[in-house]
Write a structure and sequence with these properties.
- The complex is a heterodimer of chains A (146) and B (119).
- In chain A, helix 2 packs antiparallel against helix 3.
- The two termini of chain A are 13 Å apart.
- By secondary structure, chain A is of the alpha+beta class.
- Chain A has a single domain, classed as STM4215-like (2-Layer Sandwich), CATH 3.30.2000.
- Chain B has one domain.
- Helix content of chain B is 59%, strand content 14%.
- Chain B is elongated, with a radius of gyration of 16 Å.
Chain lengths: 146, 119
C-alpha cells in the first residue's frame, strides 16, 4: 500500500467531486506538475514533505502525508488579476478538502484530511504572472482492514 | 527572491529569565539554529535540489543580537521557487522540514536548560 498514492487519490477525488471546484477549473486537477500546454486556472496536488510512519513493533499504524494543494491562475502582466482569479478557487479547494474523511478507498483508509498551513507562490512564465494559492493539507492514511 | 525562516524563543519567556537562564537558552537556540541549517542542507541533497551547489552553499543561519532567535536564510534568488514549488516544479520545503525536525526536541531541551539553571 502506498500512503502517498492513497492520499493523492483522496485529494483528487474530493476535488473532482466538488461542483464548486469543477465549475471554476473544469477537469484541470492534476497531481505533480501542470502538464505542458494545460490551460490555467488549474489545481495541483503536490507532495509537500516526506510521508511519516507511526508504528509499533507489529507494523505501521498510520502514515501522515503532507500535500501542497494549490490553485494556479495566470494573468498577463499583473499580479492583481491572477490573485482575483485564484482566490475563489482556493476557497473552493479548502471547502472540499479541509475536514474530509474518514473515507475508505480501495488502496487504504483516509482517516482525516485537514489544512495545517497556507501556501502562496508567484512565478513568471511566458509573459504571464502565475499565482498559486492554497494550503498544506495533512492526510492521515491507514491500512484498509480486511 | 531569497527565503527565510526563524527558530525563536518566545520574547516574554526570554525577558523573564535571569542572566544564567538566558545564557542557557541562547546556547540551545544556537544549537537548534545550526542543526536546522545542517538538516536543511541535507534535505536539499536528499530531494535532488542540488545541481550547481549554489542553493546548498547559500543556506546559512544568523542569530539575533540577544541570541533568542535564529534565522535561517537562503540567498540565491530562486530559493523560494525550490522551497515553495511552482506550477512546473513540486515544493521541496527544506526549511519547514528542518525547523520541524529541530523543534521536536527543542521545547524539552529548553525546559531542561531552564530547570537546570533555576536549581
Amino acid at each position: 500500500m502506498s500512503a502517498y498514492a492513497c492520499a493523492v487519490g483522496h485529494a483528487v477525488a474530493a476535488l473532482t467531486a466538488s461542483p464548486a471546484v469543477t465549475a471554476l477549473v473544469g477537469d484541470r486537477v492534476f497531481e505533480g506538475i501542470a502538464p505542458d500546454g494545460a490551460a490555467y486556472p488549474l489545481v495541483l496536488v503536490q507532495r509537500y514533505t516526506e510521508p511519516t510512519d507511526t508504528r509499533t513493533h507489529e507494523g505501521v499504524i498510520y502514515t501522515t502525508v503532507d500535500l501542497a494543494v494549490r490553485a494556479f491562475a495566470a494573468a498577463p502582466g499583473g499580479e492583481g488579476g491572477s490573485l482575483a482569479q485564484v482566490l475563489p478557487i482556493a476557497d473552493a479547494v479548502h471547502a472540499a478538502l479541509d475536514g474530509s474523511g474518514p473515507v475508505t478507498r480501495p488502496d487504504g483508509v483516509v482517516h482525516a484530511c485537514s489544512r495545517v498551513g497556507e501556501l502562496a507562490s508567484t512565478e513568471q512564465r511566458g509573459g504571464s504572472v502565475i499565482r498559486g494559492l492554497g494550503g498544506r493539507y495533512r492526510v492521515v492514511v491507514g491500512r484498509r482492514l480486511a | 527572491m531569497g527565503q527565510k525562516t526563524r527558530v525563536v524563543v518566545e520574547e516574554d519567556r526570554f525577558d523573564e529569565a535571569d542572566a544564567a537562564v538566558r545564557k542557557a537558552l541562547v546556547q540551545e537556540v544556537h544549537r537548534a539554529g545550526n542543526a536546522a541549517r545542517n538538516i536543511a542542507r541535507q534535505i536539499i541533497v536528499r530531494d535532488g535540489a542540488i545541481i550547481t551547489g549554489d542553493l546548498w552553499r547559500s543556506v546559512g543561519v544568523e542569530f539575533t543580537k540577544r541570541g533568542q532567535a535564529a534565522e535561517l536564510y537562503a540567498t540565491v534568488p530562486y530559493a523560494s521557487f525550490v522551497h515553495d514549488g511552482t506550477s512546473k516544479m513540486p515544493p521541496r520545503p527544506f526549511f519547514d522540514e528542518a525547523v520541524e525536525e529541530v523543534s521536536k526536541g527543542l521545547e524539552a531541551r529548553l525546559k531542561t536548560a531552564f530547570e537546570r539553571e533555576m536549581r
